[in-house]
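fyi for ur records
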Amino acid sequence: MPDSPLLTAASVAVIALAIAAVVAVGLKVLHSFRDLGTDAERATYKTLHAASRAGQYLRTGLNPAGAAKASKQLRSLLGCDALAITDTTGVLAWDGAGEELKPALMGLAAKVLDGGHLAVIPAGELQLLAAGDGGRPLTPEVERAVVIAPIRAGARVVGVVAAFAPAAGAGLVRATGEVADWVATQVELAELDASRTLLMEAEVRALRAQISPHFIYNSLNAIASFINTDPVRARELVVEFADFTRYSFRRHGDFTTLAEELRCIDRYLLLERARFGDRVQVSLRIAPEVLSTVIPFLSLQPLVENAVRHGLEAKEGPGHISITANDSGAFAEVTIEDDGVGMDPEQLRSVLAGHSDGEHVGLRNVDARLRQVYGDDNGLVIETAPGEGTLITMRVPKSQPRHDA
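which gave:
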């Protein structure tokens, strides 16, 4: 049956609407680009966009994968024929023409890597040097000059940026130097990120070392006291002790869940109650919806240990510890409160500032790690006074896509 005129008209209308939609989107994109105004504004936008893209690729430091992607963006910034990035041992990336020069580049860059000074090699001289360093001689029509600028991270030269062009004018020389300095900044940021990670790992090791001599000795003594009088209890405590130490000394992961940390605290308190008996009383009030919240590993247990060791152990008679975890909008809020001896606020400030060694190292390390991970506004909030006990509040974001437990 042939198509009806009505159906044909409808098909034409749909096609026309689709074309109109595509044209509208194209005009919108073109209009948004024109909104940048002058040619200078558009050039600024393109420069910043390329720098932003390249920066993303270099945030893990100087490595072949990141350098290969960044070199494409950086070559567009310089408008050169080719751009190479090296570290101190070899060529990490080459983008553009002239790869016949690649084998000779490390030899050409040797003085820059050693002395840290920018070098310019004119086209004719580059042809001779490249041939002498193992590269293939260039034909006159493809001769190029090169500007080699050092990438400095602090006092060290960690690599070079090499820009190849038919001639090395003053503009290319200055621009290549600026690009190398910009790459150096990205490398230093990557090293800073790595240093922060190592610092966090060191602080976790410090917390484990704190747990090791004090708590393990007392726990084993408590278990030994039950071997003859209550062997069943002694066996149960050995199992709890093994589970606690397995969690505390695990070697993988900087993060855990609130649920896992609470299990660790439960085992810790079982062992402490074996030593203190009814002197340690504990109450928990935990909102189920925050149990899966990701928190830094060993961030709650040291706070509970601080409450036992420095709050209740020095107190006469029984003491009480209250642990709560609540949903507070975008955050999970955890509090640990004890009715122990408390401490002087000035002493607390000194501890958190790192001016006091020895006691309360757990408080300082946890506070420092929270600030490193979540920012300075998300450290511990501690309320205390002599004879008034201590209330510690910790707030962590419920959504942390970059952190895996």
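The chain has twelve helices and twelve strands. thats all i got for now
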